TrEMBL record:
<dbReference type="InterPro" id="IPR001180">
    <property type="entry name" value="CNH_dom"/>
</dbReference>
<feature type="domain" description="CNH">
    <location>
        <begin position="23"/>
        <end position="296"/>
    </location>
</feature>
<dbReference type="GO" id="GO:0005737">
    <property type="term" value="C:cytoplasm"/>
</dbReference>
<dbReference type="Pfam" id="PF00780">
    <property type="entry name" value="CNH"/>
</dbReference>
<dbReference type="GO" id="GO:0016020">
    <property type="term" value="C:membrane"/>
</dbReference>
<dbReference type="GO" id="GO:0034058">
    <property type="term" value="P:endosomal vesicle fusion"/>
</dbReference>
<dbReference type="GO" id="GO:0006914">
    <property type="term" value="P:autophagy"/>
</dbReference>
<keyword id="KW-0653">Protein transport</keyword>
<keyword id="KW-0963">Cytoplasm</keyword>
<protein>
    <submittedName>
        <fullName>TGFA1 protein</fullName>
    </submittedName>
</protein>
<dbReference type="GO" id="GO:0015031">
    <property type="term" value="P:protein transport"/>
</dbReference>
<keyword id="KW-0813">Transport</keyword>
<dbReference type="InterPro" id="IPR032914">
    <property type="entry name" value="Vam6/VPS39/TRAP1"/>
</dbReference>
Length: 373
């Protein structure tokens, strides 16, 4: 049964990006605060400012204002963008090279600092160096079966470690010293400091695109066999039950308490609390789904959209109105980490009371008694 957890709102229309140039495609996106960056197949970076507007009726819309665009001078697509806001730098992967550019004017740093030979890269959101003016970056190298760790400063880069893997890696996420890697035939956890690795489960990267996503401290979300979204800790165990995706998931994102997945026809929303599918949104030709500081963004080749979460209280009230007491209580308990303690206690008491009256009306007196108590 469905819950209205998110609304899909347009953020950047195709005309704003490409006008009448139909050959331009969106390759990658990055969002940092109000700054939205888009990398295209014709080697441009576009910078927009996103303004969220709420109408008197509570309807949310986004107004994107184009700041500037910059040609990187190559005939290659911009394949990845990552913001390092502490350094006011944007890390740009194009033609196997990561270039550092200024977040505001998109100019390359004067020193010309860059990382060469990168297939893809990930930023360590749980860094080990303790230096606030440094970003730790892990790259999958163009060298066979090689991972490299770098420290990126405002105007220079420094290699820290090179690690060899048992098979060719094709996707990576980082947490502290731990790398979660999709290899050719399996997922592994690798501690790049000690070199100790742990097999997770088999996976064939030739048949499907692997998904490796850090979702919290020492925990990752992976696209597993049989269309399962699997959770794994750095110890190689799973503390949550898997969610059932379709076989051809392209991307996944987390917006607690939901895991959002994209395939070639739909955006699906599963609860991490009871693993049930809660919402399905038709979405054709999507090829990017990412979350940025709690903001979930999806994109087609031509446009960018934001998945706006409905307030959890509203979702809980909708469930109670449908007499789905169990689900409402599970969601209410899960909401504890998103709501200040005092406010949560008042809200939770009211929900227990409402749930009690619903059970009472359905003549479930024992259950009602427990809820009232």
């Amino acid at each position: 049964m469905s819950v209205k957890a998110f609304k899909l709102v347009s953020a950047v229309e195709r005309e704003m990006l490409m006008g009448d140039k139909s050959y331009i495609n969106i390759e990658c996106i990055e969002c940092c605060g109000k700054n939205l960056y888009i990398g295209t197949n014709d080697c441009f970076i576009y910078h927009f400012l996103l303004d969220e507007k709420i109408s008197t009726a509570g309807k949310i819309t986004f107004a994107a204002t184009k700041q500037l665009h910059k040609y990187l001078g190559l005939k290659k697509p911009v394949s990845e963008l990552k913001a390092a806001s502490a350094l006011t730098r944007l890390l740009v992967l194009c033609d196997n090279t990561i270039t550092l550019v200024n977040m505001m004017n998109l100019e390359p740093v004067p020193t010309g600092a860059r990382i060469k030979g990168a297939v893809t890269f990930a930023v360590n959101e749980n860094p080990v160096s303790g230096d606030p003016f440094c970003v730790e970056v892990c790259i999958i190298s163009v060298k066979r079966r090689t991972i490299q760790m770098f420290m990126v400063f405002e105007d220079r880069v420094q290699i820290v470690k090179e690690v060899f893997t048992p098979e060719q890696p094709c996707a990576v996420a980082v947490d502290g010293y731990y790398l979660c890697l999709a290899l050719t035939t399996q997922y592994i956890i690798l501690n790049y400091n000690t070199g100790v690795s742990q097999d997770l489960f088999p996976y064939c990267s030739d048949e499907k695109r692997p998904i490796v996503k850090r979702i919290g401290r020492q925990e990752f979300l992976l696209a597993g066999p049989g269309g399962l979204g699997m959770f794994a800790t750095v110890d190689g165990i799973s503390q949550r039950a898997p969610v059932h995706w379709s076989e051809n998931v392209i991307g996944a994102a987390l917006c607690f308490p939901y895991v959002v997945a994209l395939d070639d026809e739909f955006i699906t929303v599963h609860s991490m609390l009871d693993q049930q599918q809660k919402q399905t949104l038709p979405f054709k030709e999507g090829h990017i789904l990412q979350d940025f500081e709690g903001k979930v963004i999806v994109a087609t080749n031509k446009g960018v959209y934001i998945l706006v979460p409905l307030p959890l209280e509203k979702q809980i009230q909708d469930l109670l109105a449908s007499h789905r007491v169990e689900e409402a209580l599970v969601l209410a308990k899960g909401a504890r980490r998103n709501i200040p303690k005092e406010k949560f206690q008042v809200m939770y008491k009211r929900i227990l009371q409402q749930a009690g009256f619903i059970q009472f009306a359905q003549l479930q007196f024992l259950e009602a008694k427990e809820l009232f108590r």
